[in-house]
Amino acid sequence: MGNPWFDHLSEFRKAHPNLSMKEAMRAAKRTYTKVASTVTKSLKKSRKQRKSRGKKSRGKKSRGKKSRGKKSRGKKGGGCNTGTCSLA
């Protein structure tokens, strides 16, 4: 015993050899009664719904600035913040 639809279709085609496969499938569809699969329906479990914890942003994650080479730190040899500023 194989697939119930194919079993029905093969029996229908034996009874109606003058029909093409396409015509036989369309005609056999009217006489076929689907067998309910009670085993798969009873084994299915309902999904539990998760509790929402507020809104979460689904935007792009920020990874910080990318460094592009060396950072410039100004002139060497002190500056105005060391007390040797010539501008004062």
Question: Which features characterize this protein?
Answer:
rod-shaped, single chain, 0% strand, 88 residues, mainly alpha
Can you tell me about this structure?
This protein is mainly α. The chain has a domain at 1-42. The chain is built from three helices and no strands. Helix 1 packs across helix 2 (21-31). The longest helix is centred in the first third of the chain and has 12 residues, at 4-15. It is rod-shaped. The termini are far apart.
Q: Name the shape in a single word.
A: rod-shaped
Number of helices: 3
Which spans of ≥5 residues are poorly predicted at pLDDT below 50? none
Helical residue percent band: 25-40%
Report how far apart the termini are: 101 Å
Q: Roughly what fraction of the amino acids lie in strands?
A: under 5%
Major sheet characteristics: none
Estimated structural class: mainly alpha
The total strand number stands at 0
Rounded Rg: 39 Å
Written as H for each helix and E for each strand, in order along the chain, the element string is: HHH
Average pLDDT for all residues:
75
